[in-house]
Specification:
Glutaredoxin; seven-stranded mixed beta sheet; 7 strands; 44% helix; binds heme C
């Protein structure tokens, strides 16, 4: 009867929490850009002639002592970023929500960049939980995700790592030190030599991230190939479910053998074509929303998949029921599109 009342209930605390999260991310971006601008404005008196090209040299970045997954000790500025194009993010291996998604996304970017990773582009994932994340634990994590060479997983003293996060603008006072490990969902990419740094989202398309690292951030430019606009593909606005799938799920899941990503690597999780026909709808909806709890409850299907997929747990991405339903809707449409014959048979 009271339609407005029913509509109001759709704004669940979860969607409000997501809204807050987005606002916080925006605020961090603003704060980070102000910190960088403020620093740029300050005259760098102590910089040597070679370092004066960039406002962020050895006098800005701490030379934090870090240990990599092979137990090698490295200095943050001198050994890891000086003169390099880098991707840096902060993770902890026991994280069950955002970190696996970031790792999976970067793994696709690494694959797209090929052997340039380790030559002129370097990946660093730094642990914010140094007590648990020993070099051995980081090594096992890197192996589980099958990351290639040129990507270091690092750990160091907690206070030093916190300081580093602040210098990189990847630390929000009140969020990052308030609720225990709920950390900032961002990564930073940059070229130390030119001083060009950008914050990026792990939800970013892997092709865009790879292009920023391989082209935009490099000092040289590749000639762009002019294409006839008549050949440009028609742009189809994605549905909400498709958008969510591309940004939250596609880093780990393909959709059918011809999946558009074309990166040519084995996905971290199972291919999801046909999954809406295979699983019970209630199971599927709950699994998308809280896989961590179902694994904790030892749900038999969940346990079998977990064993089959290298014991990498599917992350809880804090989606609400509407979001899960939109994704299921998209998976169903995509299955019917790719396997129309079976769609007809099951009707
Ligand atoms: C970090 C990687 C990762 C991300 C991101 C991810 N998944 Fe998964 N997913 C997995 C893994 C790994 C499994 C296999 C089960 C396990 O190991 O927990 C899985 C299993 C599944 C299954 C079960 C398949 C079956 O055969 O029943 C579904 C459905 C699924 N994921 C949907 C999604 C959706 C929808 C999203 C986005 C909202 C998503 N996943 C995001 C890694 C991921």
């Amino acid at each position: 009867m009271n339609r407005e009342g029913a509509d109001m209930k759709m704004h669940t605390p979860r969607s409000r929490a997501l809204g807050m999260h987005l606002i916080l991310m925006l605020v961090t971006c603003l704060l980070a850009s102000r910190v960088l601008v403020a620093h740029e404005a300050a005259p760098s008196v102590s910089a040597s002639p070679t370092e004066s090209a960039t406002p962020w040299g050895g006098d800005y970045f701490p030379n934090t002592l870090l240990t990599d997954q092979d137990g090698r000790q490295l200095r943050f500025f001198d050994d890891l970023i000086k003169g390099k194009v880098v991707v840096i993010n902060f993770i902890f291996t026991s994280c069950s929500d955002s970190c696996p998604l970031e790792t999976a996304r970067l793994r696709q970017v690494q694959k797209l960049l090929g052997d340039r990773v380790g030559q002129d582009i370097f990946f660093y994932s730094i642990s914010i939980d140094p007590l648990s994340d020993t070099p051995d634990v980081l090594k096992a994590y890197a192996q589980r995700f099958k990351v290639g060479p040129g990507w270091k997983f690092l750990t160091g003293e907690f206070a030093d790592v916190t300081d580093l996060r602040k210098k990189l603008g990847l630390f929000i006072e009140g969020v990052d030190n308030g609720r225990s490990k709920d950390h900032n969902l961002s990564l930073i990419i940059g070229n130390q030599t030119t001083g060009r740094w950008m914050k990026s989202s792990p939800f970013e398309n892997p092709w865009i991230l790879a292009d920023q690292l391989a082209n935009t951030l490099q000092n040289w430019k590749q000639p762009s190939v002019e294409e006839n606009y008549a050949n440009a593909p028609e742009i189809r606005p994605p549905s909400n479910g498709e958008e969510l799938f591309r940004t939250r799920c596609a880093s780990c899941h393909s959709l059918g053998p011809m999946d558009g990503q074309g990166i040519g690597m084995r996905s971290i999780g199972p291919d999801l074509i046909g999954v809406t026909r295979l699983r019970d709808p209630a199971w599927l909806s709950r699994w998308i929303r809280e896989p961590d709890r179902m694994l904790a409850e030892k749900d038999p299907i969940a346990m079998e998949l977990f064993e089959r997929f290298d014991k990498i747990p599917m992350p809880n991405l804090r989606l609400d029921e509407n979001a899960a339903q939109s994704i299921v809707g998209f998976l169903q449409e995509e299955t019917d599109r790719q396997q129309p014959l079976q769609a007809a048979q099951t009707q």
